[in-house]
User: Fold these one by one.
Assistant:
Number 1:
Amino acid sequence: MAEEYKQDLREKMVSFTKQKEEEFLRKAEAFEQQRKQQEELYDKQKKQQELTFQQKLEQEKAVLQTTMAENLRKTISADFENQLRMSKEANLENEEKLKLARAKEIDFLKKEQEIKTREAELELNIQRKLQEQREELVAQVRKQELEKNNLKDTEHQLRVKELEKQLDDQKKLAEEMKRKADQGSMQLQGEAQELILEELLRNTFPFDLIEEVGKGVRGADCVHNVRNQFGQECGRIIYESKRTKDFSMEWIEKLKKDMRSMGVDVAVIVTQCYPKGMDCFGEKDGVWICSFDEVKAVSYILRDGIVKLFGATKSQENKGDKMHMLYDYLNGNEFSEQWKAIREGFMSMKLSIQRERDAMERLWKSREKQLEKVLLNAAHIRGSIEGISGNDNIQLSLGEDDDDLLLE
């Protein structure tokens, strides 16, 4: 019973399924037909709209073409009339220019002919004058040749030799006078520096004795006798000043000979130029070398060393060698530090002076450029005013005075 019921239920379900499928197929076919009908209707409406739009577009296009053709016709007509008018004006202007050019050409030809005529006349006059000058020159040459031939050859030669001898004597005399003048000038400059050096040492060390060395006796210029606070003579320094452009190594050997012959302790050369390898004061081959600006500092150092050496020698008398003590002092830390401090102070001062000089030169250069710019613009203004005023006298001055020399 249950099986029959299940079988019956299955058959009903199958029948119901088929019925639903057939119904779905019918609805699908009906929907497809309806969709096709709507598409056909839409296509018809679209074609109708396109046809209407095309007709409207053709109408507007025709109207636009008609308007453009009318405007183009009017524009072409106006351009043609304008070109025709401009052509007539250009023809008239060209005719006037042609007439003017022909008149200028005629005038130019006339002037050219006049210039050629004047040139021909000038050339003729020049040729005549040249011919006259040639004839005069030939006559003078002939006359001179005749006069020379009339003179005796011996007298002429003697006169020439006499003049040549006088000329040679004058040249030698001029050269000798120039040489003596140069020597005198150099000697005066050297003597002036010697006197200044002696005066500097006397003013710097008023309690020491500064002695002048006589000319022709020795090479040194002066001897510095160093004295301590008790008036005792501690040692001597010789100075020789040179005022030349080039340094000679012979000066050192010559001064060393004078140093040994005079029995002094230290020798100093005061010069304007240094030997190779030196750019400031220092010691070379047993002789101290410095410039005139450095001599005061160098003399202080050497004098202080001699005084201290004398004191040490007195305190250590009969206890050691004097030269050993001097060597120890000169190689000691005190002398080294003092010398280093002096060198540092000197180099710092030299660098500071150089910086100040560079700054002032830059400032002067800048002001010079500014002044040139002011003067140039003032000259332009003056030229413009003179061009406007003509011969009227207008005073222009950059200062308080009435003159205008700065603008000239």
Number 2:
Amino acid sequence: MSGSGSKLTYSVKKDDYRLMEQIGHGASATVYRAIYLPLEMVLAVKCLDLDRCNSNLDDIRREAQTMSLIDHPNLISAYCSFVVEHCLWVVMPLMEEGSCLHLMKTAYPDGFDEPIICSVLKETLKALVYLHSHGHIHRDVKAGNILLNKSGIVKLGDFGVSACMFDNGDRQRTRNTFVGTPCWMAPEVLQPGNGYDF
């Protein structure tokens, strides 16, 4: 890193990272706590198995691009991404406390107290306002995608089903694709023909 205020650049070489324990997984991706060896920095690496991925390559490219372009304190951003064998590695900050879902399952089985809910939702809404103001919709906001670090910072992650509301430079008024996690979807989204009114 050169000078104050400049952004740190990360290597796109596999050998500069040491994957440690698995900290999360999904249908086609596994997230590891990792060490960036040149700086001995702890971070997270999401390994997306391109062979097992249900999404097409355009969807994967879009998620990686979205993560690298966003710049908001309440959104998970990608430091860099690169291909290792049949996997796309996405390097990102480590959110040590994990997801709200994980915290509720392990430490708050009766759910969070209302002040905690208010704080988490306030920060999540800031992330959504930023995304919407830049023409993106998340489409999968749920406890498992709201992450916290050890300082209590809240970040919204997982842009796998996010969408851009601009097509060929023109703003679309609705999205009609049915994506996300059904039990977390708004009832109106589940109604035929409604889509997302943005």
